[in-house]
TrEMBL record:
Keywords, comma-separated and alphabetical: FAD, Flavoprotein, Oxidoreductase
SUPFAM superfamilies attached to this UniProt entry: FAD-linked reductases, C-terminal domain, FAD/NAD(P)-binding domain
Gene giving rise to this polypeptide: mpdB_5
GO molecular function: oxidoreductase activity
Protein name: 2-methyl-1,2-propanediol dehydrogenase
The Glucose-methanol-choline oxidoreductase C-terminal domain, residue ranges: 438-557
The protein's Enzyme Commission number: 1.1.1.400
Cofactor(s) annotated in UniProt: FAD
InterPro entries: FAD-dep_OxRdtase_2_FAD-bd, FAD/NAD-bd_sf, GMC_OxRdtase_N, GMC_OxRtase_C, P2Ox-like
């Protein structure tokens, strides 16, 4: 394939436009640098009438909002999913791994749950507590100033509670709990589980002139047309372009193929394939920033070479692709008879939970090493395709005749509307060398780029954590007056734990560390082997923590980007 070369050289070329890539672009551009963003999907703006799905009714869709090409439904903002046409990945043996990709400007930040939690002081050195995994080469105190700035730049709801490992921040007013959440709060506290206002990146009051305020449509997964929720495009990239301090070129529908290096081992460009004309191009840069997501970044590096390295760029340690881990996820659901036949009112609120439960346990007294936080939901949300699924189980609970159709069934459905409730756990798994991704030697994608192959297994660390989740959830749901709908899972069923990758929190494939023999980057995300290549996504995480990773991705990307500016000024790169 002929490579189309361009003499233009950017200060920085960024691969990926999600949380890490978006933050990198904003910080670098605000410092006057000329930046190119390479994005595998199309340009996306939730204000664009042709792309907007917010406030559309289910009956406007020929599938009544059902999932087809978008795994979370027709109106979800994700252009992608766990399976993409002509972009395969594979697994080895009995590995279960599901890899979610979102091909669009802003990436996964357009449709995520927006639960925005800082990692706590303990999360950066968990090995000191249980001897497992690796400590980070940085501390919470080093990252705290950047968390603070992310809070103020993006906006996050919550309250300062003085919790030792769930740090205080700069919070916007949280919304009031819904009725079912009040019931959860009472039952959870009865079971010794704390409950606090949720920490969500939606604006409950005006932050600046570029963004609107949440009007409680509960459709954040569709990406907000008034920019009241956090998405990397609307909150990071668009402001960077608008400010005009540094040039920002956005190259959409471009699949990054590899990092190009010269004979000295310096990175000079990103090779990419344009989906529009199926030709290969190069984007030259003094600095290369990879922020394509943990697995995509690892894939890009493993498909790149430099003189003296044949196992992937920056892989002298042999750890590239290793220590892959995702959040654990398990849940339980119940029918709450006392919530039947309620008065109908707008209970939508923000798109997601209004309260949450951070980890409360002492793992030294438990049979698993790492904790989890609790998410929950159950409201009178907009009925869509699949509404009423599982109604036969509810009929049995209520001693109704099982089955039915027409008006009698419709009457039953209206009666139980809003009486369902679910609880989910999102926990920390332990990073292991033997959980990893690698290049599949027998497969390429539509663009001729070699694809990934996954090796991954849960251990008893995660299974016993999921068992604890199930026991806790069932106790809380019972104390809410609920009738449990979820079966009792066994050890052989991983206690209902979802497959790795299903929670879409994968991290750790190019972990940071002080020792180049055991890590891929230093504490600034800079490759040990290639001094002008940085990783600004979750690939560098030494461990996941029991929190969602997005806030930490952005804090690190902000810090790393300012380090790039400093190093360029010093002419160190």
């Amino acid at each position: 394939m002929q490579i189309k070369k361009n003499d233009k050289e950017y200060d920085v070329v960024i691969v990926g436009s999600g949380a890490g890539g978006g933050m990198s672009a904003r910080i670098l551009a605000e410092n006057g640098l000329n930046v190119a963003i390479i994005e595998a999907g199309p340009y996306f703006d939730p204000q664009n009438k042709e792309q907007k799905t917010q406030l559309r009714w289910p009956w406007e869709s020929p599938r009544r909002g059902a999932s087809t090409t978008r795994p979370f439904g027709d109106y979800n903002a994700a252009f992608g999913g766990w399976e993409l046409p002509n972009e395969p990945y594979s697994t080895v043996g009995d590995t279960r791994f599901e890899w979610f990709r979102s091909r669009m400007l802003g990436g996964r930040t357009n449709h995520w749950g927006r639960i925005s939690l800082r990692f706590g002081p303990d999360d950066f050195h968990k090995k000191d507590f249980d001897g497992l995994g690796a400590n980070w080469p940085i501390t919470y105190e080093e990252i705290k100033p950047y968390y603070d700035r992310v809070d103020k730049m993006i906006g996050v709801t919550g309250t300062n509670e003085g919790l030792p490992n769930d740090p205080d921040g700069f919070f916007l007013p949280p919304p009031k709990p819904r009725l079912s959440e009040l019931m959860y709060t009472k039952a959870a506290r009865k079971n010794g589980v704390p409950v606090y206002p949720s920490r969500m990146s939606m604006l409950t009051k005006k932050l600046n002139d570029d963004r609107g305020v949440c009007f409680y449509c509960a459709q954040c997964s569709r990406s907000c047309a008034v920019y009241a929720d956090f998405s990397a495009g609307s909150c990071l990239i668009f402001p960077a372009v608008k400010a005009g301090k540094g040039q920002v070129d956005i190259l959409v529908n471009c699949m990054a193929r590899e990092v190009i290096t010269d004979d000295t081992g310096t990175a000079t460009a990103i090779s990419y394939v344009s989906k529009d004309d199926r030709r290969e191009y190069e984007a030259k840069g003094k600095v290369i920033v990879l922020a394509a997501s943990a697995c995509e970044t690892a894939r890009l590096l493993m498909n790149s070479r430099m003189k003296g390295q044949t196992e992937g760029l920056g892989n002298s340690s042999g750890t590239l692709g290793r220590y892959l881990h995702d959040s654990t996820g398990a849940g339980a659901a119940a029918f709450i008879p006392s919530l039947m036949d309620r008065k109908r009112y707008n209970e939508d609120g923000m798109g997601g939970l209004h309260v949450y439960s951070p980890w409360w346990g002492d793992n030294k007294k438990l049979d698993f090493p790492r904790g989890y936080h609790i998410e929950m939901g159950g409201t009178m949300g907009m009925p869509m395709y699949g509404f009423g699924g599982g109604h036969k189980a509810i009929q049995k609970i209520l001693n109704y005749k099982v089955g039915g159709y027409g008006n009698p069934l419709l009457k039953e459905m209206k009666s139980v509307y809003g009486a369902g409730f679910y609880i989910s756990g999102r926990g920390e798994s332990v990073a292991l060398y033997d959980n990893y991704c690698e290049i599949d030697p027998n497969s390429v994608d539509e663009w001729g780029i070699p694809t990934l192959r996954f090796h991954y297994k849960w251990t008893d660390h995660e299974r016993l954590q999921a068992k604890h989740m199930q026991e806790t959830f069932r106790s809380i749901l019972t104390d809410m007056g609920g009738e449990i709908l979820t079966p009792e899972y066994t050890y052989e069923q991983d206690y209902g734990m979802l497959a790795p990758g299903a929670i879409i929190h994968e991290v750790g494939t190019a972990r940071m560390g002080d020792d180049p023999k055991e890590s891929v980057t230093n504490k600034y995300g800079r490759l040990h082997d290639v001094p002008n290549v940085y990783i600004n996504d979750a690939a560098t995480f030494s461990s996941q923590a029991d929190k969602n990773p997005t806030w930490t991705i952005m804090a690190l990307a902000m810090r790393n980007s300012e380090h790039i500016v400093s190093e360029l000024k010093k002419m160190n790169i």
